[in-house]
């Protein structure tokens, strides 16, 4: 069955941090669906059919009271009628287990960008992990520029928080990654060290060969005039 994710904690009052990774139910005589994607609903529908347990689908993707009841042998199943392809993505997926490029784009646009440049008082799912930051920083000021902080330091701190700390926090839940490819935490110091090594190596080669160095070659980027193939993309 479905397991408890970190992003569930700010929307479901029954769960706590200690419950992350556990199943949402151990036994049941009826299932009430509150899922946010079609694949999960289809999966639960098939489990209910196999176990001969009634399923009540809450229809959380719409606003028209789309609750339906599915009982094996008495009513049509959830998949008996084709469902339209969704045009949005589950918050749990884009924050915890993105698997497509579009998930990362939606996360950056709707969550991270909004947190950095939008309404400071507007909560979103980035707050779930931000509230666990070590030290004196609180949920409200993690993404704010400190009075004594220069823009470069601020950018490095946000980078560490988003691509370092948040990834390490996600990796702490080993159950989530049992059948998924694990992400890798990348801290700013590691990025700067790698770029520095590339620059030093490129500079040394240019010195030995008597040629010039460019930013694009340093970062191993292709000529901007090149036409990329599907493989390059």
Automatic annotation (TrEMBL):
It comes from the Eukaryota. Coiled coil: none annotated. Pathway: Protein modification. Residues 26-105 form the THIF-type NAD/FAD binding fold domain. SUPFAM superfamilies: Activating enzymes of the ubiquitin-like proteins. Keywords: ATP-binding, Nucleotide-binding, Ubl conjugation pathway. One of its GO terms (molecular function) is ATP binding. Gene3D superfamilies: NAD(P)-binding Rossmann-like Domain (3.40.50.720), Ubiquitin activating enzymes (Uba3). Chain: B, domain 2 (1.10.10.520). One of its GO terms (cellular component) is SUMO activating enzyme complex. InterPro entries: ThiF/MoeB/HesA (IPR045886), ThiF_NAD_FAD-bd (IPR000594), Ub_act_enz_dom_a_sf (IPR023318), Ubiquitin-activating_enz (IPR035985). GO terms for biological process: protein sumoylation. Pfam families: ThiF (PF00899). This is THIF-type NAD/FAD binding fold domain-containing protein. It comes from Vanilla planifolia (Vanilla).
